[in-house]
Structure formats: C-alpha cells, structure tokens
Amino acid sequence: MRTPLSVRLFQSLPRTGWLALAIFAAIAWIAIPAAHLLLPEGHALYVSAYTVTLMGKILCYAVVAVAMDLIWGYAGILSLGHGVFFALGGYAFGMYLMRGIGTDGSYGVALPDFMVFLDWKELPWFWVGSDSFLWALIMVVAVPGLLAFVFGWFAFRSRIKGVYFSIITQALTYATMLLFFRNETGFGGNNGFTDFKRILGYDITSPQMRLVLFGLSAALLIAVLILGRYLVTSKFGRVLAAIRDAESRVRFIGYQPTQYKLAIWTLSAVLCALAGALYVPQVGIINPSEMSPANSIEIAVWVAVGGRGTLIGGVIGAFIVNLAKSFFTVSFPDYWLFFLGFLFIGVTLFLPDGVVGLWRKLRGRRPAATETATPTPAATPQGAKA
Amino acid sequence: MSTTMHDGIASSGRAGDSHVLRPGELDLSHKVILYLEDISVSFDGFKALNNLSLTIDAGELRAIIGPNGAGKTTMMDVITGKTRPDSGKAFFGQTLDLTRMNEPEIAHAGIGRKFQKPTIFENHSVFENLELAMKTDKRVWKSLFAQLSGEERDRVSDTLKRIRLQTEADRPAGLLSHGQKQWLEIGMLLMQEPRLLLLDEPVAGMTDEETERTAELFVSLAGQHSLVVVEHDMSFVEALGGQVTVLHEGSVLAEGSLAKVQADPRVIEVYLGR
After folding, report:
1. Percent of chain B surpassing pLDDT 90
2. A385 in a domain, yes or no?
3. So where does this one cross the membrane (chain A) (predicted)?
4. Rounded CA gap, A346 and A341, in Å?
5. Is B223 in the A-facing interface, judged by CB distances under 8 Å?
6. A4 has a chain B CB within 8 A of its CB
7. Which residues pair with residue A203 across a beta bridge?
8. Furthest C-alpha separation in chain A
C-alpha cells in the first residue's frame, strides 16, 4: 500500500508549518501588494518601493540560506563558495535582461553597451539565444548545475571533505570572480550588467513588475521549503544525515555516499541559481563582486545565526543579518563588518544551534536528537498501527 | 510460443546445471566463501599482514584470535575493501575479486562488518538505524521515493525483537548503553542479510549475560551465514565452538579446535612467552 507522492509531500510538514506558510503567502501575495499599490504614500501602512525591493532581495537570500542548510546542516558539507552559483544564475538571467535593452542603450545599437565600448562587432557565440526568455531560464539552471555537478564529482570522488572542501569552494568562487572581472570574458568586466529595461516586454521599473518579482521570490522560497522538508524527512534525507555523522559506516552498509552528496550538492547549487536569477532584476545590477569569497562566507553566517539543520533557521538568519546590514550600512556604515564579525563569534560561542536552537531551549523542549533525521509519523512502528 | 520458449530455457538450465557462471553473483560451488592467499599489507615498512592465507567455508563459524598487532583488523580492512593489499589474492566465493571492488560494492555482494568500536548512527532512532541498513536498492533515486512496505516493517520488528531493543525503537541510538549499541550494530548487520559476517570484538563491553546471548545468536546464525569473529575473550570463543585461527605478526600461526591451538607450544610462546 503506497502513499501517493502528493500526500507524502503534504505529510512532510507539520500542521503549524503549513499554517505559517499560508500566513506568509497571504502577506507576500495580498497584504504587501495591496499596501504598496492601493495605499497613498505617507499612510501608516504604506509599503515603499524601497521596502518591497529590500524584502524581495532578502527572500532571494533566504532561498540561498535554505539551499546552504540542505548541504551544510543535513549533509555536513560546508560550502564557502555558494555565491558563485547564485551569481551565475544571476548572470544567466542578466544576459537576457541585457538583450532586452535592445536599441535603448546609450549607443543606440542592438549590441550591449559594454561590447560596443570594447569595439566588438557582433555577439560572441555564448550570447547566441540569450534574447529568448525560455533559453535564459534553461541556462539559469543548466550552467550552475553543470558546474556544481562537475566540481562535486571530482571533489566527492576524491573523498575531499571538511575544511579542505570548504577551502577549494572558496578558490572556485574566487577564480570565477577573477575570470568575470576580465573584459575579454564577455560579461561586462567589473561593471557587470545593469540599466535593465524590460522583462517579456514589460517595464522592469513599474510597481506591478516589482510586485511580480517579489511575489515570485516568495513563491520560490515556499517551494524550496516544502521541497527541502520533503527531502530531509525522506529516506534520502536520513541517508544524508547518516553520511554527515558516520560516512564510512554508510559505505559499509552499501550506500555510495558520493552519489548522495553529488545529488544534494547539485540541487543546492541550482536552487541558489534560481534565487540569483530572481535577485538580479530586483536589484538591477549583477557584477563579479557577487562572487567575492566574503559574500559566500556571509551565506554560511546566515545559516549559523538561524540554526543549522532546521531549514527555517536559514530564513530567519537571512532576515536578521540582512535587516541588520541595511540598518548599519545606512546608519553606521563603518561598523557593519565589526558587527558581522561579533555576530558570528557570538553565535558560535553562545548559540551553537542558532536562533532556532535558542527558541527551542526557551520553550524547554530538548531538541530531539532525531530532529535532524526527523522521522515522519509513518516511519515509526506506532505510525504503522495507526 | 511462450511455452516453447519456457521449455527452451528449462532444458538449457538442465544441460548446464553442473556449473552455471553468473557474473557478479556469489558462487559457492566449491564450498568456500572466503579465500585469502598470500596477502601482504605494509604501512611505512611495517608488515601488518605477511603472506596471510586463510579460507572460510560456507556456513562456517570461525574465531580468530591473536595478540595485539597480529593483523586481525587489517585483515578485515582488506576483505571489506577499505585497504588494498600490496600483493595476494582475495576472493569472495569462486568469482568475486575483492581487491577490485569498493566498500559499497562488497557490502552489496554480501559481506557485512561490525567494527571494534560500535559505529551506529547516533542521531537516528534505533528503528531508522535498522531501516537504513536493510537490504534493498540503495541508489539515490530509490531512496528519494522509498517507503517501507508492511513486509519490510515486519523485518525491522523481527530484528528489533531478536536484538531485544523493541522498547527502544524510537529512541536516538546515541542514548543506548554500550552493550545495546553493540547489539544494534549486530542487528544492522542482520538487516543487510549478508552471506559472510565479519565481527570485530563483538562482545567487548558487554555483561556476562549479554555475552552469553551473543554467543547463542552467532551459533544460531552459522549454517545459513558464515561468520568470522575476532575476539580476545576465550570463554566466548569456547562458547562459539567452531574452528579457531591464531594470527601472529600478520600470518597464520595455528589453526584447529580451541583445545588444539591452546595446547600448541608456539601459541603458548606467543601469548605468554614475553
């Protein structure tokens, strides 16, 4: 008697989880659009364009944090180069946005401005097809996915683990950043892409487009949370947690850890890329600094602050750190990095399980050791009887 | 049409039933399940195994004893694919060359191993530990959509009963006592349904009663399975009742019943001489 996948997907979240997602969806898809479009500026509940964009941006970061938690919290793989997949997703969609400018650029020709500036006469081969929206979506998934797959295949096959793996992921994002800094690479050098005009013919700066992008970011986050929850409560997730805790034992009972790691690693990279593709039209720019090692380390900080191995912790961490960042960079720009450093040290020393861990402690609930390998009701003998 | 095809297969089966070779499957046609010949392994010049030769028959229960550093654990590492021998042959049945397989492949072929220090998944529940070990298709795609069938659930319950951990099924395995962890690991081994079980000091840290029950369990497994047990506890070895192999400095020093090897002057020399 097999339970259909849709039912299992539904069962993977507790009732409170679905309730929280529903409230979140109502806020993101109804309350905020209404407050932004219908209320007059200056009204107490008016949501400004700045706020919508900031929130949309943080939602994209939250997706990245959940993707990071899937590999770090559940599979024990700490990537300090996840920014590269986020940025590549952004670049892949940015190419489409650049082509969307058409002849509205400063030189008034069909070629993107930076190519005219470099005195290129025609599009390089890898820009072919980039004017198609569908092609752009395929590239958003395919390019970062392929890079992650190839990189992961070599790294996991050679059994590179722990801090060594983290270091080479730093090298990966740094090397890619240097490559993208070069004008000859064909992605706008250190200026990257900007001055976007439209998506599918619609004005990118209109309030409606802003809300659509914001709503899509919220939808992506919801989808990633449900998918992530399904994965970590499935047998696949239990094998991942087993690899994290005792990899050699997993091998001796007949699983190939390489394949499991490769699967979750590649999936995580693709989720980052999707977030990057939604991020770029909202902030209006993508350049190689997105790939700087510091950015990738910040992703790990979000997850550490929120709480590893909880999925929702990544979302909380991304919001706390980025709201603090917005506040500091406006009010005390010189102190932001100090604050970030103290936050990271403080969390590591005093809150090893992050904000979610603190919350559980305050509620007096000892985090069940199985929480990270959460058994669904159906995975226990009691569930069988029910 | 279909009947004739069926007949054809049946008759060809009859014609070749003296010895059918199936690639990748365990072949026990010569009654030998494990065959080690002239295995040598050295670490930085230290010879952990020195021309070790050993055969285990199908269904046999063999105890391996020897002083520390005799090469017992290294031998298990070679059999399970963790360590590659510098020279020598290692076969599982007649056809499976263990020196060319990796750990998961060897596990799939039917060799299960229990480590000296109990290695279980401490954050998973006892039930989940057994579920993960259960013999099934262990590829990623299958795990993504895996669901326990009623029959599989029964198999886990049976094993839980056998290792006397029914009441602990939902507890995190890390909270078990040392002896219970040893039993859980043995249970995981049983879930794999291996043909050959390698057990490295399975009763270390167990109470006398637990040790006794473990011996009973192993004796009941012999016949259906083959077992290789490394142990220091002589009363446990005696309770197992099978053949005993004494390892010393990486090769076989003596072989035979416990009484016979205990009377062997070379064995006495090794154990008591210095």
Report:
1. 53
2. no
3. 18-39, 45-64, 71-93, 133-156, 163-181, 211-232, 262-279, 299-323, 335-352
4. 8
5. no
6. no
7. A198
8. 73
